Amino acid sequence: MKRDTENDAAGSGGTPAAVTVTRTTCPYCGVGCGVIARTAADGSVSVAGDPAHPANFGRLCAKGSALAETLGLDDRLLHPVIAGQRATWDEALDLVAERFRSAVAEHGPDSVAFYVSGQLLTEDYYLANKLMKGFIGSANIDTNSRLCMASAVAGHKRAFGTDTVPGTYEDLEIADLVVLTGSNLAWCHPVLHQRLMAAKAERPELTIVVVDPRRTATADAADLHLAIQPGSDVALFSGLLAHLDRTGAVDRAFVAEHTDGFEDALAAARAIGLAGAVAATGLTEREISGFYDLFARTSRTVTVFSQGINQAADGTDRVNAVINCHLATGRIGRPGASPFSITGQPNAMGGREVGGLANQLAAHGALDDEEDRARVQAFWGVSHLPKKPGLKAVDLFTAMRDGRIKALLVMATNPADSLPDADGVVEALKACPFVVVADVTAETDTAAHADVLLPAAAWGEKNGTVTNSERRISRQRAFLEPPGEARPDGWILSEIGRRMGYPGFDESSPAAVFREHAVLSHRLNADRRDFDLGGLATLSDAAYDGLEPVQWPVRADGSAPGGRLMGDGRSYRAGGRLRFVAPATAQARTPSGRFVLNTGRIRDQWHTMTRTSKTPRLMGHIAEPFCQIHPADALSLGIEPACLVTVSSPYGTVVVRAQVTDGVLPGNVFVPMHWTDRLTARGRVDSVVAPLVDPISGQPALKGGRCDVARFPATVFGFAVTIHKPAREGLDYFALAPAKKGFRLEFAAVSGAVDAEALARRILGMSSSEPLIAVADASTGSHRFAAVSHGRLMGAVWIGPEPVAVSRAFAAEQLGVGGPDLLLAGLLAGRPGAGRADGGAVVCSCFDVGVKTIEEAVRAGTCLSVDEIGRHLKAGSNCGSCRPEIKRILDTTKNCLQTV
Ligand SMILES: Nc1nc2c(c(=O)[nH]1)N[C@H]1C(S)=C(S)[C@@H](COP(=O)(O)OP(=O)(O)OC[C@H]3O[C@@H](n4cnc5c(=O)[nH]c(N)nc54)[C@H](O)[C@@H]3O)O[C@H]1N2
Ligand SMILES: Nc1nc2c(c(=O)[nH]1)N[C@H]1C(S)=C(S)[C@@H](COP(=O)(O)OP(=O)(O)OC[C@H]3O[C@@H](n4cnc5c(=O)[nH]c(N)nc54)[C@H](O)[C@@H]3O)O[C@H]1N2
Ligand code: SF4
Ligand SMILES: [Mo]
Fold it and tell me: d(Cα 326, Cα 341) in Å, to the nearest integer?
């Protein structure tokens, strides 16, 4: 039993309160950290890292640590909705079953589709795939993993014959060289990054190289940062392969015994060579040679790759260019030596295991493999498994726009924000006659276009398993009752299956579904692939309940599970050989636009922010969408720091804040993927991204597209803090974020003359007769307003012709404050008065420590290292996600001190 009760001596009033302790798994990234959730008798929840979990050994990052703050119900979808009206589950499910059934009857099975997610639990995912491929008889089920892992999957299959991640997390710790390419590990897989940094602290000779066009927090923490031109990875790693060959670093015996295709790959690599790598990457010959020599001489090398590799029109070739270098040196599946595709979502791997992609079957089976099809058909008792792949995500939404999809179920993903050509996706949703969205959040940009909304149970409310990046299966366990009428995704899918009249959906308990999945994996793969859970096929319900994290394969013969794979050079491909792949020479067409548009993640937000934006702590780090642009480009376009810019393409436009920094290369901009129509006026960056895909994997090029950038002609800028949700109508730009006791709002407008007071009142929701303190500064044309009710601050607004200088953190803290603690004068001045600390933008979200506090401590000489800052200010001493940023602040401040 993984649920225990303990007595909490710290319970209120000294009386011990019963606390339920549940061991579960973090629902965010693919590191898959173990979490201990403690639920007190009053229902309050706290979370901590699980010291016994082999992914994190007790650590959690900022997002994981803040999980308990995201469990609030204010924005939850709590009951089914049909056409905007509350409905019963029976009504909603009958309607869904009927509409899917009639579409299939009228237009055939390929007229319906599921679009699901790497955030589903394995059991739920298994049911979705079984329902669509096994019973509806179409392969039109694709998932957001198409945007995420498809190139890695395709690259693995080309090289290994199977979708196998050969290494384990420990390899990063025991390697002598870790190359991170297209991975911002410090922000996106923070706990794994901490494990890496801890290993480096113990063994400083462990060298870390980051290959990324952008100087990220990960690059800051590395020994060497190769700021390559975007899109030059194939050239970089091809040049490396040629270098390995030239310098005798190739493991000839391994290549001869275990691989095919070396000569072709080498010929292609030689054609590129060092000169080609220099030309493509924009690095100097010396920089590249230094890296190549390091790689050549370090046998314990791990190359970690993520979205900077996968999300490209040549993503699969990039994956194979990396793997080629590991095959050539025999560095695969050996201690401290492997290529390592690191997965993004908590269950990206589980989704691959159940075959959630439109070109997969189930249990790593292939749709076009007769033997696989026969075995799965026999197992499910069906006769008409689709023979051809279904529509991949981008094609699926194109087909929908063309009217070819008559009914769609979207589950646990938000395509109106996360797919390229996102405005086109909205058009597709509008064009689809019947859209069902199962989500935990009532209002999302996708849910806005649903005919039926189904309330899903959220993290902490349902049971199942997830698989992390190192093939480790962990239990997610419920510790809360689903609120309202929310039900688990697996239950929803089984009900739809049942109501469509299909057998095979009667037993929907997670344990039973898991057993079924394990049996199938064994039947399909015992003799053919490494994905085999035969040893878990007969787990009792109780054993499933208590399942400890376990790496696959888990064979039925009782052999030790998991571990490294392919270290012996054997693959499951016919003939048992691994394969080199020469990259295709054809280049994808490049759309026009002056800048390369790079997109990706920030430290404290998760994707479309439906959960992480609920906590002021996580919003305190970066509260607004931004565009990083190089100073030279900014100068040439008249873009000053903190002004607003448009980033546009023929597909769409966003308006975001300019962040002028030499952390991006000239000609490149970076915009985060997170902001949506829920929180911004025009912040959905995927509305700008072209729907170009890798021809092999179908993964869209979400990075490396083109765009233009221009100054946004705002004439009015402002900032507001409000107790009640501020009105945003009529604002040409806004970014809304929660604050501890209300909201904060950045805004701007493009209009000639503006009545500042009327605007402030509109934002605050106040009539013209309600009292409002107003201060105007004629010399700067700026205005400040404060609304005080019953002695407490209800809101404040700053408006001016330039971006307004206000200490955001300080202003937000004053909300709801009354009496002598309300610093009204300081507030109207935009900063605390003398003697009052202004922490500045939050760096450490765990302890709420701002940049100014850190700078001050460095200047005062009290803290001269990251550890000292941790000891004195606590910053960086809990989850550690902010340590690279603290180091940068420390270095910059120290430099300033030295130069004055
Ligand atoms: N905080 C946070 N963590 C997350 C997530 C989140 O939303 N927020 N999401 C999770 C998910 S689903 C995923 S998939 C992972 C993604 O994790 P990552 O892949 O690490 O994250 P990204 O920011 O998408 O992109 C990584 C880097 O690729 C770089 N890049 C862009 N173009 C190129 C190129 O041509 N070559 C190379 N070598 N690099 C390039 C970008 O500059 C960026 O720094 O993160 C997971 N973790
Ligand atoms: N430009 C650009 N675009 C990108 C990327 C990029 O780097 N750049 N990255 C891509 C990648 S790698 C990914 S993974 C995608 C992610 O993109 P999405 O999957 O669209 O993003 P999320 O915000 O994670 O969406 C999850 C949805 O499921 C809901 N949800 C949460 N828990 C549950 C649950 O238990 N059940 C159900 N039914 N719903 C739930 C949430 O409220 C939310 O609406 O974005 C992709 N898009
Ligand atoms: S690294 Fe952070 S987000 Fe990822 S699983 Fe661990 S705690 Fe969750
Ligand atoms: Mo992802």
Answer: 13
Instruction: Name the residue among 468, 578, 530, 564 with its Cα closest to residue 171.
Output: 564
Rounded (10°) CA dihedral 395, 399, 400, 403: 170
Distance CA 456, CA 686 (A): 26
Residues 442, 456: Cα–Cα separation, whole Å: 10
Give distance in angstroms: CA of 12 to centre of ligand 2.
38
Q: What's the rounded Cα separation, in Å, for the pair 205 and 293?
A: 16
DSSP state at residue 136:
I
Note the pLDDT tens digit of each residue in 564-583. 999 999 888 888 999 999 99
Of 832, 810, 124, nearest to 497 (Cα)?
124
Mean pLDDT to the nearest integer, 360-389: 94
Choose between 302 and 560: higher pLDDT.
302
- Residue 646 — pLDDT band, cuts 50, 70, 90? very high
pLDDT score at 588: 58
Ligand 3 pocket residues where CB is under 6 Å? 26, 28-29, 31-33, 56, 60-61, 63-64, 189-191
The overall average pLDDT reported for the chain is 94
Q: Which residues pair with 464 in a beta bridge?
A: 476
Q: At 791, list the tokens.
A: 């002695």
d(CA 467, CA 348): 7
**Residue 870 CA to ligand 4 centre (angstroms):** 31
Q: Compute the distance between CA of residue 25 and CA of residue 473 in angstroms, rounded to an integer.
A: 10
**pLDDT band, residue 4 (cuts 50/70/90):** low
Please give the distance of CA 775 from its chain centroid, rounded to a whole number: 43
Q: Which has the closest alpha carbon to 348: 217, 515, 165, 134?
A: 165
For residues 618 and 604, the answer to whether their CB atoms sit within 8 Å is yes
Q: Report yes or no: 667 and 594 within 8 Å, Cβ to Cβ.
A: yes
Nearest CA to ligand 1 atom 40: 308
CB 601 within 8 A of CB 187: yes
Mutate to test the pocket of ligand 3, among 47, 56, 459, 845 (most ligand atoms within 8 A of CB): 56
Q: Which residues share a beta bridge with 8?
A: 17
pLDDT, mean of residues 250-256 = 98
Residues in Cβ contact with 44 at an 8 Å cutoff, skipping those fewer than 6 apart = 68
Tokens of 216: 């990220």
Name the closest-CA residue to atom 4, ligand 3: 29
CA separation, residue 353 to residues 118, 125, 153, 546, 717 (Å): 11, 9, 11, 21, 50
**Cβ of 45 below 6 Å from ligand 2:** no
Distance CA 687, CA 116 (A): 20
Average pLDDT over residues 344-360: 96
Strand 85-86 to strand 81-82: parallel, antiparallel, or no bridges (unpaired)?
antiparallel
- Work out the pLDDT band at 17, boundaries 50, 70, 90: low
Residue closest to 893 by CA, chosen among 839, 837, 854: 854
d(CA 495, CA 508): 9
CB-based contacts of 482: which residues, under 8 Å, 6+ apart?
457, 458, 461, 462, 488
Pairwise CA distance, residues 25 & 37, whole Å? 9
CA distances from 187 to 13, 192, 824, 865, 885 (A): 40, 10, 37, 21, 10
Q: Is the pLDDT of residue 1 over 50?
A: no
Identify any residues that bridge with 380 across adjacent strands, giving them in sequence order.
none
Instruction: Write the Ramachandran bin of 649: left for phi over 0, alpha for psi from -120 to 50, otherwise beta.
Output: beta
The per-residue DSSP string of 375-403 comes to: HHHHHHT-S---SS----HHHHHHHHHTT
Q: Which residues lie with the beta carbon below 6 Å from any ligand 1 atom?
A: 29, 148, 181-184, 187-188, 211-214, 216, 230-231, 233, 306-308, 344-345, 598, 600-601, 603, 605-607, 703-704
